[in-house]
Specification:
The chain has helices at 2-16, 44-62, 76-79, 84-88, 166-200, 204-211, 221-255; strands at 108-112, 116-123, 133-142, 148-159. The protein has 256 residues and is of the alpha+beta class.
Amino acid sequence: MVGILVPLIVLGIHFSQPGNPENATGPNINVPGYTQPKKAPFTAQRRREIAPVLRQFILTAVDRQNVGTSWDISAPSLREGFSRKQWNSGDLPVVPYPALDRGLGQGYVEYSYTDSVGMEVYLFPKPGSGYSQLTADVELVKGKDGKWLVDYWMPKKFHGPPALSASARAKAKAQAAKQEAAAKRSRKATRQTAKAQAASAPHPQSDQQFNQPQQSKLWWFVPIGIVAAFVLIPLGMAGRGWYRNRREARQYATRS
């Protein structure tokens, strides 16, 4: 028993120790060269500093208008692996999107540190572009000169129907009107069929009268026979008595 408990106690003491700061198995993980960023409030001043940078990045790098100007507002980590010539030609690690200049530079702040800000932005597509509304994640970092640069951009989710052109909207509207008209005709035909079926079907009362078995007329003879019996039997008996009396009177007259 002691031979089993001693190893268990030793193992318990070993794993309960905080461990070496350079060992990832300890609870206090210390990665060389990494420091925990300090949180910073997202003030109105910070918003005024970030908004124009974010707006310019969306119009240039995302919407591909004068894409070369987005090089100077992109962080080195985003430009890594791309030359200035490639970037100016539109070969950059940013998914293009035809963004409408509406509310650009604004968004939901997900985190705010001393030298970085993470946001979720909502973009509207240009009319007729065929794109839906877009939610994207973006991160901005503060450079050594104190200027804000875009370090990360990634589309997150599309929302709603695509923005159609005028001709496409007219075509879709005509198609919807055509489908609605067809649905109305179908409903009308269904009602007419139901009315015709209701008119041709026998009425419940008529059907009941039609299916009711007809009573026999012979039952009328029963009360008539009873009444006749009450009348004819006394008359028969009276006639028989009269006939008997008359016959006896005739015989008596003959004998006399």
